[in-house]
Amino acid sequence: MADSKSTEPAAAPASDKHAPSAIERGLESFLFKSRWLMAPFYVGLVVSLAVLLFKFVLLLWENVIHLPTAKESDIILGVLSLIDVCLTGNLVLIVVFSGYENFVSRIDPNGHPDWPEWMTKVDFAGLKQKLLASIVAISAIQLLKAFMNLDAGYDSTKLAWLVGVHMTFVVSTVMLALSDRWTSDH
Fold first, then answer.
1. Which among 125, 103, 102 is positioned nearest to 173, based on CA atoms?
2. What ranges do the domains of the chain cover?
3. pTM (2 decimals)?
């Protein structure tokens, strides 16, 4: 005959399968707060933007100084170098804003009507896509610069490597986009 007062604990409700202990809550709180250790990385990337700006100004000045004697191909190569630095700066900004928003803390755009709309809406999948698209664009600029320098004597091995690396970036970007699309559909 079964005893009406069972010594077995009552089953936990389905929504509360595990009540965390004080140690577990403390550890989780510590781990959650550790995300702030990433903030100095993003500040360092902002400093790297200043370095890129300095390099951009030097390249621009060099292009302006050599303008009277430059050939058309030299001007195009100079502009491509400026675009390359600009795209790299854009890449850094994407990482700073999206990384901070996704991994450290939400950014409140209220009161800042001039902030780009994408800044607080890029999730991790979108961040990966933007990063890879920027890398492909930078790689394409490098490849275009190499093609523009074909007259100056080209190294077929170096050109083959540039094409191979660029195609690797392109294929990787397409595969990641397809993978993200397939996983979001299922």
1. 125
2. 40-185
3. 0.68
